[in-house]
Amino acid sequence: MTTDKAEVTAKKTATTKAPAVEKRAARKPVNATPEPAAKKPRKKPKVKLVRDFSMPQIEYQKIAEIKETCLKAGLQVKRSEVLRAGLKALGGMNEAQLMRLIAGLGKIKAGHPKKPR
What we know:
This protein is mostly helical. 54% of the residues lie in helices and 0% in strands.
């Protein structure tokens, strides 16, 4: 009877350990070098938008007139595009032209008006 028990124990041991050996064989070797990761293209940083200026209503109307002129010419533009084009035109002026233009502007109070109570 002892030989029968030994055979049964040997069979159990063989069947329980065999899958573990197969699992170990399927694993990657410990000393394997890692595969190089594919390089992702760098994203360009977003340009931060800033909304911080005061402008009289008359100048907002002037922007609307410029937009209408562009629309009649077949070009649809946004208010920000009109302002950016103006900045580009100012940047192309020489110092004397720029100083004359800025001196001709009226001064306005910066910031938000107080709310009426």
